[in-house]
Amino acid sequence: MKQYKGQNNLREDIFRAYLAGIIDGEGTIGIRRHKKNERTGYIKYMPYIQLVNTNYVLVKMFSDFMGGTKIFKHIGSKNGFKGRKDCYVTKKSGTIAAIKIIKKLYPYLMVKKDLADLVIKLSEEGKKYSPVGKKIKRSKTNLPAGEAQRRANIYKKYLSIVHPQRLSERTPEKGEAIVQA
Q: What is residue 55's DSSP assignment?
C-alpha cells in the first residue's frame, strides 16, 4: 500500500484522539498532594495521568503510548467484591513525564480539559522554583511563600472540580441523611 504525505501524522492524530477519549471516560488526570516535607518546609504537588480498566489490551496500549509504564493487576473478587472483573492500572506521574503525555493528548480532550489546564499550569509556572530531574540542595527558603500559596490555590481549584462537595459542604456524620433542597 502506498503511503501518502501526512498519512502517518493522520494515524498518530487519530490514535491520540482515541486515547484522549479513553482518558476522558475511564482515566484520571490529577494532582497528588504529598505531606509537608520536614526538611524543606513545603508541601509537594505531583501531577499524574492514570488509566484503570478491565481490558488488559487497552491498558497495555496506553502504557506503550506513555513509554512502557508498569501495569498492575487488581484482583476483582478480593475483599468481598465477588463477581467483579480484574482491573489493570497504569500510571505516569511527575512534572516532566506526566505533563509530556497530557500535552500530547490535550488537543483531543473534551471532558477533562479543565483538569489538564490546571495540571499544566501547576507545572509550567512552578518550574523556576522547583527544577525537576536535577539533584539540588534544597533549603527552607528556596520556595517563596507566594509560590507555595499559588500551588495550594491550584490544588484547591482542582479539588473543587473533582470533589466539589469536599469544599462546599461538611461531611455528614455516620447515619446522617444527605438532603438536597
A: -
For the four alpha carbons of 134, 139, 144 and 148, in that order, the dihedral sign comes to: positive
Domain range for 64 is 7-168
Instruction: Confirm whether pTM is higher than 0.85.
Output: no
C-alpha angle 115-103-135 in degrees, rounded to nearest 5:
95
Mean pLDDT computed over 165-180:
55
**DSSP conformation letters of 66-128:** TTS--EEEE-TTGGG-TTPPPEEEEEEESHHHHHHHHHHHGGG-SSSHHHHHHHHHHHHHHTT
List 92's β-bridge partners, or say none.
49
Distance between CA 21 and CA 31 in Å, rounded? 20
Q: Using an 8 Å Cβ cutoff, are 49 and 27 in contact?
A: yes
- Please answer whether residues 24 and 36 qualify as being in contact, where contact means their C-beta atoms are separated by less than 8 angstroms: no
User: pLDDT band for position 5 (50/70/90)?
Assistant: low
Q: Is residue 177 part of a domain?
A: no
**Reported confidence tier of residue 87, pLDDT bands at 50, 70, 90:** confident
Q: Establish if 176 belongs to a structural domain.
A: no
